[in-house]
Fold this protein.
Amino acid sequence: MDILLWHKILSPYELAVQELVLKFDHMKKEHRERGIYCPIENVTGRVKTISSILEKMQKKEIPLEQMEEQVEDIAGIRIICQFVEDIERVEKLIEARSDMKILCEKDYIRNQKESGYRSYHLIVQYTVQTIDGPRALQVEIQIRTMAMDFWATVEHSLQYKYKMKIPAHIKTRLSNAADAILSLDKEMSSVRSEIMDAQVSSQLQNRLVADILNTIENLYRLTNQREVEKIQDEFYRIYAAHDMEELKRFHQQLDIIAEGYRAQSVAEEM
Ligand code: 0O2
């Protein structure tokens, strides 16, 4: 039997994980920049440890030569959402991409596992470029809410501690906790639109304030200090009043003033 060179095998999976985390983080950034709600709250990734790969192969009686084909989660991405409804939106974002091809889905939300585990899994094909050429790999993407993730993380640690033989009284507690997580997700979904509105307006306000202060700073270079101080004082007054509409109006007026000063300074230079 050939010697398995683990580093060489796992290296493209490490690249896939790094690239995918970067791409999902970029999706978050694009949503933020356009002032639209992002269904992705957080993204992490990992390459399965060698001992965990071997354990899975032993458990499922997978021969070494079929490892990459049958162990679908050597590369794993975990996407955390705030609400159950966001999970489908993330799935649609993935479906629409040309660099990830969905090979199969496992819906443990509609079909909760006996343990109480809830999560939505996609196995996707993702191609990385290596010095030996392109490599098409399988990647498991787990999509779940923060609440589902909390439960899964705790239960996973207990599985590790008790080596799959979790005592009955702890299993009962975990099952009760899974029910509580289910109702927590339902409660959060019922206030989803309020929370989404609040988050989008907070993002808009952050962008507006950053834009205004940037314009004031540019004006400071173009015109006299006293004038700019008056504008800045006016901004602080409006900001303190927490009036978003007034802030938007101020932003528009400031843009017109700044444009005027810019035109004037260009004319003076000529
Ligand atoms: P790790 O340490 O996260 O890599 P199977 O053995 O049939 O259940 P399969 O066929 O690989 O596993 O697919 P499945 O069921 O979709 O499981 C893939 C991963 O989902 C697991 O990887 C876990 O991360 C997670 N998962 C599945 N079931 C449970 C569960 O009951 N509790 C928790 N906490 N996580 C679960 P690994 O290799 O088991 O573990």
